[in-house]
UniProtKB/TrEMBL annotation, chains A, B:
CDD domains tied to this protein: APSK
Gene: LOC140003707
Keywords, alphabetical: ATP-binding, Kinase, Nucleotide-binding, Transferase
Record-linked NCBIfam families: apsK, PRK03846.1
Functional pathway: Sulfur metabolism; hydrogen sulfide biosynthesis; sulfite from sulfate: step 2/3
Catalytic activity reported: adenosine 5'-phosphosulfate + ATP = 3'-phosphoadenylyl sulfate + ADP + H(+)
Family membership: Belongs to the APS kinase family.
TM region positions: none
Protein task: Catalyzes the synthesis of activated sulfate.
Documented EC number(s): 2.7.1.25
Gene3D superfamilies in alphabetical order: P-loop containing nucleotide triphosphate hydrolases
Protein name: Adenylyl-sulfate kinase
C-alpha cells in the first residue's frame, strides 16, 4: 500500500466536553437552519436578519453563506455539477460541526437539488435540520437581480444558471416555507420572526 | 463560458452581527489554537484537556480533530501529498470560521509541514493563530503507539508515515512549545494550564 489511505487507520477521539455541555453554557440547542431558494429570493437578507434577531435575544448563531465560502473553504470548486454537489456537501459538514459546537448555524445557499439538501439533512438528527424555503416567484427574483446575474444568464453570458437554464427543485419536506402574501413579500423581520417562533416552539432557544 | 465559474460573479455578503458582537456575548475572543506534533505526542489529549479547562471557566471552545474530520468534511481525501495539503487547508478554513464565530477553536493535527501550517496561520490575524508544538521525542511517541500505527509503519505495512518515512518539520515560529522536563512528560492538565495562561495573558479570555 502506497500511503496511509485506509480508514481502518483513522481513529475517532471522543472529547470530554460534549454538545450537551456546550448547549448548557449557551442556553440553546445547536441546529442548522438551511435557507434554500433562487438567487435574489432573499436568502442572505433573511440569514442576516435572523442572526440579528437571535443575537438580540442572547443567542449565538453563525451564518454560512454559500457565496462567502466560495472565497475560502470552497475556493477550489467551480460550478460543474460535481463541484456544486461537493460545495453543498462541505457546507453541510461544516454546518454539522457548528451545530455540534452548540450554535444555531444559518446556512444560506441556492442548493437547488433535493438530493444534495437531503444529504445534508441526513448528517444530523432529522429534527435539527430546519429547511427554510424562500418560495419567491422567478419574476420577483429576476426583477430584483441584485447581482445582475439574471441579466447575464438571459444574455447567454453565464450558463447553467438556476431558474434560467438549470432547474430549481422545490423542497418536498421543508419545515418552513416563506412566500408572498397577496402578491407582497413579507418584510425580512417578519420572515425572521417566523423562523424564531419555530425554533422557540421546538425548544432550540433553551438548553 | 460553460458554467458560472467566475469569481467576478461571487459576491460577498456582510452580516450585521459581526465577530465583535459575538465575542461580547461570549466574553472571549475568537482564535485558533493549532496543536501540531507526531502521532502519539499527545495532541488529542491536550486538545480535550484544554477544552475541559476552558469550559470549566465558562468559555466556549471546539475541537477540530484531524482524524475525526476525515470521517466527515475530509472523507474524500487520502494521504497523498496533495490530499494532505488539502486536508490541512480545509481544517484551517473551518478553524477560521469558528474563530470568526467567536469560539476558541482547538485544531489537533499532525500537520507535519511548515508550509501548510503557515498557510493556515496566514488566514487569520497573526496574533489569533496560536501554534502549540508537542515537542515529544519520536521514541516516546513510538513507545506509546496508541493506535498501533508505528508498528505497522516499521513493518512497512503503511508508508509515508510521519516520523518514520516522512518528515516532521518542527515549527520555526510556534507560540508555545511543550516538551519533557528531565525526561518526564508534563501531565495533560499542566500542559493545558500553560495554554490557558497564554490565552489569558493575550486577552483572549475576555471580550
Amino acid at each position: 500500500m502506497a500511503t496511509l489511505g485506509n480508514s481502518a487507520n483513522i481513529f475517532w477521539h471522543e472529547c470530554p466536553v460534549g454538545q450537551a455541555e456546550r448547549q448548557k453554557l449557551l442556553n440553546q440547542k445547536g441546529c442548522v437552519v438551511w435557507i434554500t431558494g433562487l438567487s435574489g429570493s432573499g436568502k442572505s437578507t433573511l440569514a442576516c436578519t435572523l442572526g440579528r434577531e437571535l443575537h438580540s435575544r442572547g443567542h449565538l448563531s453563525y451564518v454560512l453563506d454559500g457565496d462567502n465560502l466560495r472565497h475560502g473553504l470552497n475556493k477550489n470548486l467551480g460550478f460543474a455539477p460535481e463541484d456544486r454537489t461537493e460545495n453543498i456537501r462541505r457546507v453541510g459538514e461544516v454546518a454539522k460541526l457548528f451545530a455540534d459546537a452548540g450554535l444555531i448555524c444559518i446556512a444560506s445557499l441556492i442548493s437547488p437539488y433535493q438530493k444534495d439538501r437531503d444529504s445534508c439533512r441526513a448528517l444530523l438528527p432529522d429534527a435539527n435540520f430546519i429547511e427554510v424555503f424562500m418560495n419567491m416567484p422567478l419574476s420577483l427574483c429576476e426583477g430584483r437581480d441584485p447581482k445582475g446575474l439574471y441579466k447575464l444568464a438571459r444574455a447567454g453570458k453565464i450558463k447553467g444558471f438556476t431558474g434560467i437554464d438549470d432547474p430549481y427543485e422545490a423542497p418536498l419536506n421543508c419545515e418552513i416555507e416563506l412566500r408572498q402574501i397577496n402578491g407582497v413579500c413579507p418584510a425580512p423581520s417578519e420572515m425572521a420572526g417566523k423562523v424564531v417562533s419555530y425554533l422557540d416552539s421546538k425548544g432550540f432557544l433553551q438548553a
